[in-house]
């Protein structure tokens, strides 16, 4: 089949222009915009499976939120991983400064705001299972909502094309208000912080509640970020953007541990879209003896102020792969420590995929008797490029030193349902036929001080990323993924 004849070029151009017009784009080095790759029609999921994810994901967020504030547990359970992974070792050092010594512990003034994306794959045999927790830089909520709007546009404007590529004509779109609900959660936290200072007689009350987004230098995923900022501005929130390097010279302390940004004033909420890798803290101009010390200390400085914050250092530790493994391996009864009932713990357990630590014994087992295609090897890295599959796992394990084992984990490999019919993927304005598309669904949640702050019990929309089953890297930004949305069927 000639791919050029699958859908008329007029449709492709119209929909890609819709994307650009609605901010669904990546910025290029020359300051032009490139549309985000997308599917021409949505993926299908059984309504019962989707409802299960809606019920369990806020419980996962509640669990992680409470674990993140259990500082003794974080220190005790992640110390070996911190020794094995230099970046998490640095995070643990930062965490220990305020939290390490229980006898002299001072709770940092920061108010935890957990904006989390929990990523799932719907495995053919085992059902929907968690891939990972994303507690820092958990982005693309706005793009998730826009994808649902894009498919609604295709249905309304190019109905025949939409129906041709829809798996089930009875399917109904799943509501997705990710952009507005995330903005609501953030705005709620900002207004609560501002109200706290109003009670203390703060004299800067004429200023709008103010939101600071910490971003990477020369960021290309800016439009997703700006869409969130616009939604916040619509709720009466002032938004500003800074890198860690800029903040290292611009922050100060006001009365009552108020965080002050030079040229702006008081800050109510801080949201990190950077900080999950060493390069976010690397400033060569500072000529430091210890890499990244100044900018990582800037992050700790923020935590010493009364400000709503995502992600706190504790939250980043609590959403690590090692913590995911520990929570997966422990008996569900132990979840009671963090406020979950046995019924809630069972729900969470139902979506956790098997994980095993990397140890001499498990390496011997893996090489001798494991079905290597049923496992994936992961390190602590965020984003694409941190997974090893199949026969390559043995090779990687053989190269690891024993002191590096605790930075890695083996996880049950998920084999999601392939779409029942082919679909059209559009990338750089060109279409291609994909016959083996599989999807990953990320559900967003928002909790402030452990309590839900959205209209749906903490749930805050979804992000669907689809990719050919033959591709291991499914990121929209860095892999072969395409933006997608969700329709539901009753079976």
From TrEMBL:
<protein>
    <recommendedName>
        <fullName>glutathione synthase</fullName>
        <ecNumber>6.3.2.3</ecNumber>
    </recommendedName>
</protein>
<dbReference type="InterPro" id="IPR005615">
    <property type="entry name" value="Glutathione_synthase"/>
</dbReference>
<keyword id="KW-0547">Nucleotide-binding</keyword>
<keyword id="KW-0436">Ligase</keyword>
<keyword id="KW-0317">Glutathione biosynthesis</keyword>
<dbReference type="GO" id="GO:0004363">
    <property type="term" value="F:glutathione synthase activity"/>
</dbReference>
<dbReference type="GO" id="GO:0043295">
    <property type="term" value="F:glutathione binding"/>
</dbReference>
<keyword id="KW-0460">Magnesium</keyword>
<dbReference type="InterPro" id="IPR014042">
    <property type="entry name" value="Glutathione_synthase_a-hlx"/>
</dbReference>
<feature type="domain" description="Glutathione synthase substrate-binding">
    <location>
        <begin position="210"/>
        <end position="318"/>
    </location>
</feature>
<dbReference type="InterPro" id="IPR004887">
    <property type="entry name" value="GSH_synth_subst-bd"/>
</dbReference>
<dbReference type="Pfam" id="PF03917">
    <property type="entry name" value="GSH_synth_ATP"/>
</dbReference>
<dbReference type="GO" id="GO:0005829">
    <property type="term" value="C:cytosol"/>
</dbReference>
<dbReference type="GO" id="GO:0005524">
    <property type="term" value="F:ATP binding"/>
</dbReference>
<comment type="pathway">
    <text>Sulfur metabolism; glutathione biosynthesis; glutathione from L-cysteine and L-glutamate: step 2/2.</text>
</comment>
<dbReference type="GO" id="GO:0046872">
    <property type="term" value="F:metal ion binding"/>
</dbReference>
<comment type="similarity">
    <text>Belongs to the eukaryotic GSH synthase family.</text>
</comment>
<keyword id="KW-0067">ATP-binding</keyword>
<keyword id="KW-0479">Metal-binding</keyword>
<dbReference type="InterPro" id="IPR016185">
    <property type="entry name" value="PreATP-grasp_dom_sf"/>
</dbReference>
<dbReference type="InterPro" id="IPR037013">
    <property type="entry name" value="GSH-S_sub-bd_sf"/>
</dbReference>
<dbReference type="InterPro" id="IPR014049">
    <property type="entry name" value="Glutathione_synthase_N_euk"/>
</dbReference>
<dbReference type="InterPro" id="IPR014709">
    <property type="entry name" value="Glutathione_synthase_C_euk"/>
</dbReference>
<dbReference type="Pfam" id="PF03199">
    <property type="entry name" value="GSH_synthase"/>
</dbReference>
